[in-house]
Each structure stands twice: as C-alpha cells, then as structure tokens.
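Sanity check

After download, print the first record. It should look like this:
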Amino acid sequence: MGTSARMAAVLQSLHPARGDRGLIGSDPEVCARALGVDGVALSLLSSDQASELVWVSRDGVSGPLEDLQFTLGEGPGVDAVARGAVVLEPDLARLPADRWPMLLPELASLGVGAVFCFPLLVGRVCLGALTLQRRQVGPLSEAGMDDALILTGALTAVLLDGGAASDALMATERPSDLYRAAVHQATGMISVQAEIPLAQALLRLRAYAYRHGRPILEVAEDVVARRLDFRNDGPEPDVAGRKRG
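Expected structure tokens:
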C-alpha cells in the first residue's frame, strides 16, 4: 500500500501546532482533493457515545451530511461505528430504499452520489469515523482507497499520540467548545423539562428536528434560548409559549 504525493503532504500537516484549538492540523479541502472526493468529515464519539463533528470541509455538503446522520441516527458513519468496518457505497441511487430510509432522500436532495466511511479503530474500540462524500458516482480509485486507509490510521495516531492533538481533545471536553454544544445543552434541558433520561431527550430533539425539516442545531438553539419547551406531554412541545399540534 503506497501513498500519493498529495496525501503525503496532508499527512505531514495532520498534527496541530501547539496552542491550536483544532484537533487536526491539515486543511480538509486539501485532503478532499487529494482523495478525489468533494468533501471529508471526521466525527468522534464523546464519552456518552454521542457523535461530535471535529473536522469538516467548509465547501460542499459534508457538514450537512454529518448533521443529517446525527439527527436521523442512520447512515454510513453510524453503520461504520456500529460494525467497526468500512462502509463503501459508490452509487447511492442503487441502494434499496430500506437501507437508510430517512437519509437516502435527503442525500439525493443534497446531490450526494457516493459515500465512503472509515472507522477509527483502536483494537475493538471505535473512536469515530471519517466520512468521504462525492457527487459523482463510482468507487474510489485504488490509489484513493489506499490513501483513505492510510489517512484513517494516521488520524487515529494523531488523536492518541499525547501531543498537541491530545491537548486540543482535552480542551474540547468543555461542552461550550464542541460543535454541537447547543445540542448537548438542549438535551439536558429537555431531560429536565420532560422528566426523561438523556438518551430519550436526545431522541425527542432529533424527532422534532426531522419532523419539522429543521437542522438539529437550530432547534437546539431554540431550546437553549427558551423559545421551545418540551414540558408538555402532547405531540408537540410548546413554541414561544404556544402549544402546537
């Protein structure tokens, strides 16, 4: 297994500099180009097994793809983490509708044609998943596949090496530093409001976001700002003091 010149350059810059609050030093757009895809995203599992997005291409739809997987609880990243195995889907249009029944229509609307997901494994423990997405259908090239596997191993090593990445990882244990900080805070608030466990509170938040076609971060921000309340027992929570449903 070899590494392309472009990927070699990405690997050399993976470690964040001291004082850098990011976990990964490399530019994800440069990484995506090296792999021959339109976008990359790295999500890690937090201590409560929730997915936290820590590195993502700014251009394209990798961010929305990760948010959809988080909201719906299904997708290539979810499968890769659950199975501890690579998930390669070079043509989403050919998948059976029941593979990811809620996610597939959303991916079609985003124009995603292919997804490739690689779990970050340490023995039997999964730290998270690297997800690649591309508009064009078709498998990764042989060189692209080699590069993706090498990158996955390198990312795992960076997160475990005790250097600057570990310092950044410790810093992000503060909820306010997390990409989905509002989701974590809203989940706790819903748990108190509805008197339900945290896991069930997160499911209610996800369900509300999906049912209303809204990003989960946006809904969570409404909960944190007290514009949305889950105290009632009806089909919909109160919004700005008015019951819906």
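If your output differs, re-run the checksum step. Summary of this record's structure: The first helix runs from residue 5 to 12.
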